[in-house]
Amino acid sequence: MSKFLGPLLNPTNFLFILFIILFIFYLISKRKIILKILSLNIFLIIIVAFFPAGSLGLKYLEKDFIIKKEYKNIKNILVLSGADERIIASVSLAYQYPEAKVFYVGGNAYLVKNNENDDPTIAKKFYNKLNFDMDRINFIGKSRNTIENFKEIKDLDLKYSETILITSAYHMKRSMMIAKRQGLEVIPYPVNPISRSTTHLLNSYQVFDVTNNLSNFNTFFREILGIIAFKITS
Question: Count of domains in the chain?
């Protein structure tokens, strides 16, 4: 989803804004129906904040993708713009496969743009800090979202059986769906898994964090929304 629409699509933002509106209306009107809706709103906030619903959802998104110990004939490393872990993974793979070229794919989804906040510019600084050979990287920087990413990737006309795709684990399911629709059989390389796939549900409360629960639920919700939107529009 675009960075502009992101805050509007976060369900926790919506729930808290709705809570404020309902609370004000209840103070003004004292109507029982508003109190009931307000109570339901509070209940939903409690569920999202105190139960690992988001983590369970992310576990569903991430479960189908694992990293292998070794890959054969890797000639291209595709990096979808985003988290720093994706860049770090691309550097690690590039050292493992010294003949491979790196393609960093991303652009700028902000409404107000400048040369400092676009993804390729930030990525170049990061790669430089890692002392990576910049001659091995191609920056593809016009796309604003995942669908546009893969349209640009298709234009590269690579041998996709020798191409690894790096993106966040939770984002890989949607990315592979879009890649398949474009006819690109790339090799998934998920990084930075958020869900604790091998951790028992009860153990998750040892690291209980309301903020983390809300963040995970937002991430899951937005990714599911992106998958639904892709299926409807494609």
Answer: 1
Establish if 227 belongs to a structural domain: yes
Residue 115 belongs to domain spanning: 51-193+212-234
Once rounded to an integer, what is the mean pLDDT over residues 173-191?
Answer: 93
**Is the separation of the CB atoms in 82 and 168 below 8 Å?**
yes
Q: What is the pLDDT of residues 57-85, one digit of tens each?
A: 999 999 989 888 788 889 999 999 888 89
- Cα 76 to Cα 99, 101, 183, 212: the distances in Å are 9, 5, 17, 35
pLDDT at 48 over 50: yes
* Domain-located, residue 2: no
**42 lies in a domain?**
no
Contact 171, 64 (CB under 8 A): no
CATH of the domain at 62: 3.40.50.620
Instruction: Tell me the pairing of strands 163-168 and 76-80.
Output: parallel
Longest distance between any two alpha carbons in the chain, whole Å: 70
Cα distance between residue 3 and residue 108, in whole Å: 9
Question: Residue 3: what pLDDT?
Answer: 47
Buried b (16+ CB within 10 A) or exposed e, 153-190: beebebebebbbbbbbbbbbbbbbbbbeebebebbbbb
Q: Rg for the chain (alpha carbons), in Å?
A: 21
Cα 108 to chain center, whole Å?
15
Contact 106, 123 (CB under 8 A): yes
Q: Would 15 be classed as within a structural domain?
A: no
Quote the tokens at residue 13: 């933002």
